[in-house]
Specification:
With 182 residues, the protein is α+β, with helices and mostly antiparallel strands. The chain folds into 2 domains: 43 residues; 135 residues, Heat Shock Protein 90 (2-Layer Sandwich). The strands form 2 sheets. A 5-stranded mixed β-sheet has the order 2-4-5-7-6, covered by helices on one side. The chain has a two-stranded antiparallel ribbon with strand order 1-3. It is globular. The model has no long low-confidence stretch (mean pLDDT 86).
């Protein structure tokens, strides 16, 4: 399918529904923006973190429209971190996992936090959700596959320089990534 067709169709839908329902129009716009980002940057080795962060915020707006009052989220980014290059599509798999597994283990509403800060020599990326950590069952080969793929990508791009920690405490699952600023 031609991406231009898809985006033109989404813009037409957005314009039509915006007159009747501003919230739905906003969701369609967020979906279009996220799809455009995904298509434009899925093969990029590095992109500015600010673009990735904005795309994840669009993704969360779409999920919020889907889950309504069953999902709450907050996103914070240190403005000094926006221009720092990061691997393309690094935040979205973390947020997708937070929603997927958080929905299974959290009291509602599920809460998701995305926090990004720039330290002296590293970026700190934190994605947290209410709920408990689910260990993948031995037979579930696809469980946590997005997280595993992300770990492998980061290890290739930052050999021995990256860190990914998972903690679960006080009803929250937190994934923290430290990436060197190149």
């Amino acid at each position: 399918m031609n991406p231009h067709f898809l985006f033109n169709a989404l813009n037409t839908i957005r314009a039509g529904v915006e007159k009747a329902n501003a919230q739905l129009g906003s969701m369609v716009q967020s979906l279009a923006d996220f799809l455009r980002f995904s298509l434009d940057h899925s093969h990029d080795d590095f992109i500015p973190l600010g673009r990735e962060f904005d795309a994840v915020r669009d993704y969360l707006q779409v999920e919020k429209a889907r889950f309504r009052d069953k999902l709450e989220y907050e996103c914070d980014i240190d403005e000094a971190a926006r221009a720092v290059p990061v691997p393309g599509i690094v935040l979205q798999p973390l947020v997708e996992n937070a929603i997927k597994y958080g929905q299974e283990t959290s009291d509602l509403p599920l809460r998701v936090r995305v926090q990004v800060s720039r330290q002296a020599t590293a970026l700190k990326i934190v994605v947290a959700n209410t709920g408990r950590w689910l260990e993948p069952a031995p037979r579930e080969k696809t469980s946590h596959l997005g997280l595993e793929n992300l770990c492998n990508r980061l290890a290739l791009l930052y050999p021995g320089q990256q860190r990914l920690d998972t903690t679960h405490d006080a009803g929250w699952v937190t994934i923290t990534i430290l990436l060197p600023i190149l």
